Amino acid sequence: MDRFPNAANVDFHSPLDLSKAAAAVLDAEGRISGWGSSAQRLLGHSPEDVLGRPAGRLLATTPGQRLSAFCKSHKPRSTVLDLCCRDGRTLRAAVTFSPLDHLGVAATVVVAADVEALRSWEAQLAMLQGLATESSVGLTIFDTDMRVVWGNVSTDLELAGIAQYIGRPAADLFPEGEFISRHHPPDEDQIMEHVLTTGEPIMGMHYRGRAPADPVREHVWSCSYHRLVDARGEPLGLFEESLDITDRYRAQERLSLLVRAGKRIGASLDVRRTAAELADVAVPQLADEVLVDLPPAVIEGRQPPTGSAPGHSLLRMHGRTPEEFRTSPVSYPPTSPQALSLATSRPVVDASPTDAPDEAGPAASHYCLFVPLLTRDAVLGLATFLRTSNPDPFGSEEQTLAVELAERAAVGIDNARRYTSQHAAALVLQRSLLPQHLPEQSAVDVAYRYLPADSRVGVGGDWFDVIPLSGARVGLTVGDVVGHGVHAAATMGRLRATVRTLALLDLDPAELLTRLDDLVAQDSESQADDGLSDESLGVTCLYAIYDPVSGRCVWASAGHPPPIVADTSGSVALSALAPGPPLGLGGLPYENVELNLSSGSVVALFTDGVVEDRRTDIDSGIDRLAQILAWQRSPVEELCDRALSALPPGPQADDATLLLVRTRRLGADHVTDLELPPDPAVVAQARTLTERQLATWGMSELSFTAALVVSELVTNGIRYATGPVMLRLIRDRFLLCEVSDNAHTAPHLRRARRDDEGGRGLFLVAQVSQRWGTRYTSSGKTIWAELAIP
Description:
six-stranded antiparallel beta sheet; 32 strands; disordered N terminus
């Protein structure tokens, strides 16, 4: 379809041209002797109506003598007359009288046209003249060989004289220019050839180059190309429209750069990456290179220096990845433009090239723009924008743009600094809340992995612990607080400490979880208005006790996944008992589950982040973990690595904690049991048995101390019990002496007076043992004491 359907109506011939105007011939007396068809079209009178009659009859207001004056003139004259049309209208017409007496003919040719049509034609002619002489749009005409034919005044000014380019190819106008619009062929010859061949105009191409009249400054033009054809439709060549849009183009570039900066600068919460992001955004659109210099304190996440601007002891950032990152020291002389920029908190332009590279600036740069990095009235450092290949100076708008980019970078760097500080504090908190070194014990071989979902903060709400208990037993616990980050970690720390405290009271798992449930509920009520109660209300916990003497494992769960057990045959089992309610909800009681584990069994305690994510359900995750535990003969450290490497790739939805334990059993040669009747005479027998057993174990040096402890503990048991007393000796990392009876009253340590006959037994036990205590059982109590082995 024709882009310009009315183009055929555009006619630049004058309305007074003989091919268009109304024409008539008057004789010497002013009578009409000739009447053309064009005159009939203009006024409507037929030749029969006007021939031989005075022309003055066609005038509406002009006197006839004035008309005869025009006919008798010896040179052409023009005027405006009101003419009568046949239909009664009055037509105001521009009329030209041309006498023919120089040809020996006593006649006058009259040419007339509508005044309005003539004024419209004159306006079009003025428009064309304006385009040629006054328009800011450059117009250049090329012939069919794409050589310059003509250019208007705007083109003449840009080229510093069009005459020197007449007859030369288009490529000679801007030898180093280039099209930066890529939706058409980037070569100008190809574009012109396309327009000449197809007749399709190409419009809005952006062209960048340096005009001969201004070779220092780079310009951008919007160029359009149209084919020129003659009256027969044959190509005459083409013309180019070019409009200098440098200021508008640069404004759009600045706007797009700011949009890009808003998306990219400061998104990483990393100081070094933020510095690299500033360079990535500003190069090459604003500068050829960007340098960022910061104090060491800012890089390390500490407060920026206060007082004077940091002109000394700065570090220049290098590299855009953590692997490439490095710093080099830099300082500025007091009189340098960098020091001035920092001291005044204003941008400074240095237009003098540097002779040699040094710590304060680059070599052979045309222009340097120094912008301080300011935030919250503090000077974080300095950003240097360099131009080496671009000879254009930094204009005022570019300086404003650089300041805004530096402000964005400063905010990002300050946020990254604060994040680094908070991250370090969070990691310290996490390390203080989780066990750093698991205690040495003989009951289990332990391996663990902790993987927080918030990998940027590095802390979460999961916890685990291994707690040595009396009787060579060990307490194992895993818990999960809803949420991530510091609040969840703080809640986790409180709960882990509470579990450890309750575990050291030798409570069984169900009783421990019951008391913990009450404490969490009370804690939630007291924190109902502080915004942190959600973490306390979403807590699950599993607690287990393993006895290496009997191989018995007892556990209870508060809303937590039960443990997975792989025995020495490789079979894997998951408890069918449903867990109790999460902590803090109350309601249903917690129940103990008892397992008998053979030596070498592997028990997996885990949080749901290990077995559940957005893409797989918890049953599939448990099956995956069970398949890994089937390789239970592998070291537990290797099993931990396999379990975490099997997690789906990508970010985690929840914290993942895995605690693997391989059980051990204490053989009969490490344990001795003796049942004693409630008779004071058996105290000596207990001492003798103890001394003999220690001699068998090669621990005779402990005989006196151990005999003393056993004597006091058996004496207490016989005094208060109503049934037999059980004595147990366990050789482990220490010597454990236990005396069990059916009484539920616990002895109390007290300081006996000089005249007291008793009360010194437990005091002596406490003095010679490294630990002692009492634990209650369903049938009574057990008093125990641990003696260090020399």
